[in-house]
Amino acid sequence: MTNKHILVALVQDRPGVLNRIASTLRRRNFNIDSIAVGHIELPNLSRMTIVVEADDAKIEQVRKQLDRVVEVIRISDITYENPVAREMVMLKVKATPSTRSEIIQVVDIFRANIVDVSPDSLIIMATGDQDKVDTLIELLRGFGIREMSRTGIIALPRGGAGPLTIEENKPLRHVVEHAPPEEENLPNW
Asked: Would the pLDDT of 174 be above 70?
């Protein structure tokens, strides 16, 4: 049985890491539902949240393969750890004088924010779990969505120390200075 799995990885903040991880998933024929990457509290490290759909055995296999990528410090499947998972969406919605107040009511119900107002549209920003974001999009679709951008899911496990928690006194594996990748000898046009 396939489920959506949330993989989180602590990675070195270096060029090409995202490409190597995406290529590993592609080679294993995984479709990435979402991927989000951002800096964390420690310098030169980033946290990557990847959502893929597969059965538990395939996820464990790909997790082990991703763990072998040199720049991956730690990787964990937090799907069954009851994570707090959220995503953000920004929508540019067509708004006329007659529909503007109705759109504002929908925005208020979803605790979203209007971040830009123009004579013919509103830009709405909302955060929440995937179901909340999907429901808001469906309700606003009736007014006419002109543009939309979603961040993808980011997640943290609930409670105390999570699987990617860094202890201050312990060194991180893989965090060594590597020589920069050799530049290709391309013609200087």
From this structure: no
Contacts of 135 (CB under 8 A, 6+ apart): 110
pLDDT digits (tens, 9 = 90+) for 30-77: 889 999 999 998 899 999 999 999 888 889 988 998 998 889 999 999
Domains present along the chain, CATH in parentheses: 3-81 (3.30.70.260), 84-150 (3.30.70.1150)
Mean pLDDT, the chain, whole residue set: 87
Q: Which residue has the tokens 């999009």?
A: 137
pLDDT at 42: 87
